[in-house]
C-alpha cells in the first residue's frame, strides 16, 4: 500500500498531538510531535542558563546548538514515543509553564528551526508518517499528500490545556494558561521565519465541537483517498 505524509498544523492546544497520535496508530505510521522538539531545545536553554531572569541569550543558545541531540523512544507501557535530550528522557520536564512561556521566543530563532526542520525531514524521508506542528505543511513537507489545519476557539483551547496540566498535578491559574496560549499564538503567527499559517492546500478542521473519534475518523477517511 502506498505510504503518505500527513501534516497536521494549527494553533496551540488544539489537540493536534492526541489526534495525530491516534491517526498514526490506526495507519501503523510513525508519529512525530515537533512541538516536543522545540520544547526540548527550550528546556536545554533553561538548564544551561541561556534563559535567565526572563531574558533569552539567543547568541549563546545558537552557539551551543551542536551540543543538542534530540531523539524519540517508545515507552512500551504507555505506547507513547517520549522525547530524549542527549540521551536523557525529558518527557515530564517539557510541558511545564516555564518551558511553555519561553518556547515560542526560542522557536523564532532561524538557526534552531533549521536544525530541527532538517531532522524532521530526515524522519519523514520514507513517508508513512504523521507529523504535527506549526510549519509542517508549509515548510517541513510542502509536498505532503494530506495537510490538516486545526483550529478551535481560544477559550476552548485554554480550557483543554488547563485540564491537561491540572490532571498532571500542576497547580496553576486558568488566566495564566489562557495568557500563555494567546501569547504563543501571537508569536507563532507573526514571526518572520516559518510563521504559523494555513497552507493553501490544507483542509481546515474546527474541532471546538467535535469529539476526538470524529476528528480521527475524518482524517482517516481523507487519508484513505490518498493511499
Ligand atoms: O505543539 P506545542 O504546543 O507543544 O509547541 C510548542 C511551541 O513550539 C509552539 O508554541 C511553537 O512556538 C513551537 N513550534 C514551532 N514549530 C513547530 C512546532 C512547535 O514553532 N513545528
Automatic annotation (TrEMBL):
<keyword id="KW-0067">ATP-binding</keyword>
<dbReference type="InterPro" id="IPR011994">
    <property type="entry name" value="Cytidylate_kinase_dom"/>
</dbReference>
<dbReference type="GO" id="GO:0006220">
    <property type="term" value="P:pyrimidine nucleotide metabolic process"/>
</dbReference>
<dbReference type="GO" id="GO:0036431">
    <property type="term" value="F:dCMP kinase activity"/>
</dbReference>
<dbReference type="GO" id="GO:0005829">
    <property type="term" value="C:cytosol"/>
</dbReference>
<dbReference type="InterPro" id="IPR003136">
    <property type="entry name" value="Cytidylate_kin"/>
</dbReference>
<dbReference type="InterPro" id="IPR027417">
    <property type="entry name" value="P-loop_NTPase"/>
</dbReference>
<dbReference type="GO" id="GO:0005524">
    <property type="term" value="F:ATP binding"/>
</dbReference>
<comment type="similarity">
    <text>Belongs to the cytidylate kinase family. Type 1 subfamily.</text>
</comment>
<protein>
    <recommendedName>
        <fullName>Cytidylate kinase</fullName>
        <ecNumber>2.7.4.25</ecNumber>
    </recommendedName>
</protein>
<dbReference type="GO" id="GO:0015949">
    <property type="term" value="P:nucleobase-containing small molecule interconversion"/>
</dbReference>
<dbReference type="GO" id="GO:0036430">
    <property type="term" value="F:CMP kinase activity"/>
</dbReference>
<feature type="domain" description="Cytidylate kinase">
    <location>
        <begin position="6"/>
        <end position="224"/>
    </location>
</feature>
<feature type="binding site">
    <location>
        <begin position="10"/>
        <end position="18"/>
    </location>
    <ligand>
        <name>ATP</name>
    </ligand>
</feature>
<dbReference type="Pfam" id="PF02224">
    <property type="entry name" value="Cytidylate_kin"/>
</dbReference>
<keyword id="KW-0963">Cytoplasm</keyword>
<keyword id="KW-0808">Transferase</keyword>
<keyword id="KW-0547">Nucleotide-binding</keyword>
<keyword id="KW-0418">Kinase</keyword>
Amino acid at each position: 500500500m502506498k505510504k503518505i505524509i500527513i501534516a497536521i498544523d494549527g494553533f496551540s492546544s488544539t489537540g493536534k498531538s492526541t489526534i495525530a497520535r491516534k491517526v498514526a496508530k490506526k495507519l501503523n505510521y510513525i508519529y512525530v510531535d515537533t512541538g516536543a522538539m522545540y520544547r526540548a531545545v527550550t528546556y536545554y536553554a533553561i538548564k544551561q542558563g541561556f534563559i535567565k531572569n526572563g531574558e533569552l541569550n539567543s547568541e549563546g543558545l545558537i552557539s551551543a546548538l551542536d551540543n543538542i541531540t534530540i531523539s524519540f523512544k517508545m515507552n512500551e507501557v504507555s505506547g507513547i514515543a517520549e522525547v530524549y535530550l542527549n540521551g536523557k528522557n525529558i518527557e515530564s520536564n517539557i510541558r511545564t509553564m516555564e518551558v511553555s512561556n519561553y518556547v515560542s521566543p526560542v522557536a523564532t530563532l532561524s538557526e534552531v528551526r533549521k536544525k530541527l526542520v532538517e531532522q524532521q525531514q530526515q524522519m519523514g524521508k520514507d513517508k508513512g508518517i504523521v507529523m504535527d506542528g506549526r510549519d509542517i505543511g508549509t515548510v517541513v513537507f510542502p509536498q505532503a499528500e494530506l495537510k490538516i489545519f486545526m483550529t478551535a476557539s481560544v477559550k476552548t483551547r485554554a480550557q483543554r490545556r488547563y485540564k491537561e496540566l491540572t490532571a498532571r498535578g500542576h497547580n496553576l491559574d486558568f488566566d495564566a494558561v489562557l495568557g500563555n496560549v494567546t501569547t504563543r499564538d501571537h508569536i507563532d503567527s507573526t514571526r518572520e521565519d516559518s510563521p504559523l499559517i494555513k497552507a493553501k492546500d490544507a483542509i481546515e478542521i474546527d474541532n471546538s465541537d467535535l469529539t476526538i473519534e470524529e476528528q480521527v475518523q475524518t482524517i482517516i477517511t481523507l487519508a484513505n483517498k490518498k493511499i
